[in-house]
Amino acid sequence: MLYCVSMELIPIQTSRLEGKIDLAHFFLSAMEREKIKLKNGDLLVVSSKLVAVSEGNVVDISTIVPSAAAKKRNISRYGTGKEDPRIVELVLREAEKVIPGNMMIALKDGNLMPAAGIDLSNAPDGIAILLPKNSWQSAWKLRATLLKKLKLKKLGVAIIDSRCQPLRWGTVGIALGWAGFDGIEDVRGQKDLYGKSLKVTRKAVADNLASAAQLVMGEGDEARPFVIARDAPAKFTNKKPDPKKIRIAPSECIFEGVYNKHVL
Amino acid sequence: MLYCVSMELIPIQTSRLEGKIDLAHFFLSAMEREKIKLKNGDLLVVSSKLVAVSEGNVVDISTIVPSAAAKKRNISRYGTGKEDPRIVELVLREAEKVIPGNMMIALKDGNLMPAAGIDLSNAPDGIAILLPKNSWQSAWKLRATLLKKLKLKKLGVAIIDSRCQPLRWGTVGIALGWAGFDGIEDVRGQKDLYGKSLKVTRKAVADNLASAAQLVMGEGDEARPFVIARDAPAKFTNKKPDPKKIRIAPSECIFEGVYNKHVL
Predict the structure, then answer these.
(1) Fewer beta carbons within 10 Å, N or C terminal of chain A?
(2) Following CA atoms B199, A176, A226, A235 in sequence, which dihedral angle do they give, to the nearest 10 degrees?
């Protein structure tokens, strides 16, 4: 008989987060309330919004003075009408590069994201939530604290957000940073069903994990900012990941024929 | 106390598929061998490659006579060197539109896909596997057969593939067709943590499910072409999905500023 190990996705509900806090403490309190314990080999998925708020990476919109460039830019988020110039200003400040067009697509941490990841939902009126300052570092730090406090040996942490897809409706997950597991598994050289070597395949394990977590996390008032993935066939590692390794230069990307000069 | 329902992903191993077969029968035999039963409320994820092979949607490469256009096109898949003109010919035949560039990105069923989804891995030497002819119809048909045979009321089926991501390494999942559940959940109007209405959010549930399944499916010789997602918080429906509804016209897509004239 064949044997298949199944994988579990366990969402953890928390209270609403109101400001800067210690993230590990917040997580451990929720786990205690839920009577769930982390195990060796678990992957912990954390919403980037929670991380950003816990780090105080939020902006009071009323304090932003829009530049002339921001005022001039008749641009919209998601095609829903002209944007508040203060939000445009915030995007110009946050983005590595804003791609010209009718919508506010920007490069942020190497990813093409609407409004450079700035979000007004799940925030009090007048407050914009930015992305975590450094999701890689936050993942690494949270993992280190949890390994120590819970006396675990194998644990992965991924900080995730949702993202729009080219030409398709609906948001999927993206991992902004991770630690403790191979977020991109190189399966080149592995054999296929006919014994031929796979030549080009890398698996975006962390991004797949982000999308899996999105299934149980919710986007509204569900307040489930943590998901534990248990018995995932992940490769654990203590090596610090290199964020540069996930990026592909636009000219070397398989979609290069699709991009215009503003990306290339 | 708060209560969190966890979700399970159960991979189903099968024998290697050698040619045209009845897909429902192949699945039910594997389930019997594994002693696993489908339950009401399960989502069944099926690899598109398995579906294509089961439908005989494969091509003997030696039978292809490349056109002059295919021979002229000095193009490569994945940047791994000049492509066999017969494969280029196959891409030209299969694609809705081939985007000019160094790599063979093509529009196929509304998606930007390398080589229009044509794949040589997990196929015998000299054979190319195409995408299923109509993944929507195949999902609908498989679901209907399983509902009847197993006397179930609520069942979702999704046919999935892997896809490359813009500017990032690694493949994630994509749902090519689905039936029996809301593959794109419209959460506009739902309240966020502060009681504000979410304005623009749609969740790509089927694509997230595809990525979740990729975590346990494997890309090599694992032969796990089915995954059951159990206790997923999906919205089940008996309505036939409308494939046109998932597509966004390039000019209306949030990434419009990113595309060149060949896409727009």
Answers:
(1) N
(2) 140
